[in-house]
Amino acid sequence: MTTSTPWYEPFDNEIKHISVLLKTQLWLQIVLALILGITCGLLISPTGGGLAQPETAVVIAQWVKLPGTIFLSLIQMVVIPLVVSSIMLGIATAGDPEYLKKIGLRIFPYFVITTSVAVTIGAGLALWIEPGQYIDSKLITGMAQAVPVSDVLQQSVPDKLAGLIPTNMTQATLEKSMLQLVIYSMIMGVALVALPSKKSKVILQVLDSIQSIAMKVVSWAMLLAPYAVFGLLCEITIKIGVDALLGMSIYVLTVVLGLAVLWVFYLLIVRVLASRSVWEFSKKVRSVQLLAFSTSSSAAVMPLSLKTSEEELNVKPAVGQFVIPLGATINMDGTALYQTIAAIFLVQAFGVDISTSGLLLLMLTTIGASIGAPSTPGVGIVILATLLSSVGVPAAGIGLILGVDRILDMCRTTLNVTGDLTACCVMDKWLPATAKSKPVDYWQS
Question: Which of the listed CATH numbers 1.10.3860.10, 3.40.50.10700, 3.40.50.2020, 3.40.1380.10 matches domain 25-430?
Answer without folding.
Answer: 1.10.3860.10
